[in-house]
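During data preparation, we tokenized the protein backbone, and the record follows.
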Amino acid sequence: MALTKIQTFIQKLSESENVKKVLSDIQKLSSELQKKVQTLNADEAVRKYKEIVKKASQAEGDLEKEVNKVIVKIKKSATDVKNDLVLYKKKAVQQKNDLEKILKSKKTVTVSVSANEATPKAKKAVKTMKKAVKSNSKKKITTTK
């Protein structure tokens, strides 16, 4: 009984023009709200995308600056190493020339240390010097004009 009365009340209420108008207004507002939500989400997504692109481009710029700094440091180090190598080469050539002059001036090496008194280092030094003198005397120096 109560159920049938409730059903008839709902039926009469739904047939009313004011209720139909309110329902259509609610449906219209609901659809407009859904559109707004979609555009808000799209706008928010675009805003986030722009932020991300901005951060990415900023990070790219920072990375490029760091890479350029490292390249400058590497070039500077390479220049320093090159200069040092040139210096070392000049010193080595000078020492070689000095040693050749000494070896040419002394054809024989005499050591006045007896075999019992000589240390192993001294014996080794004497052998090295004798070999250097022998190899220098065997070399023929040729010059080109």
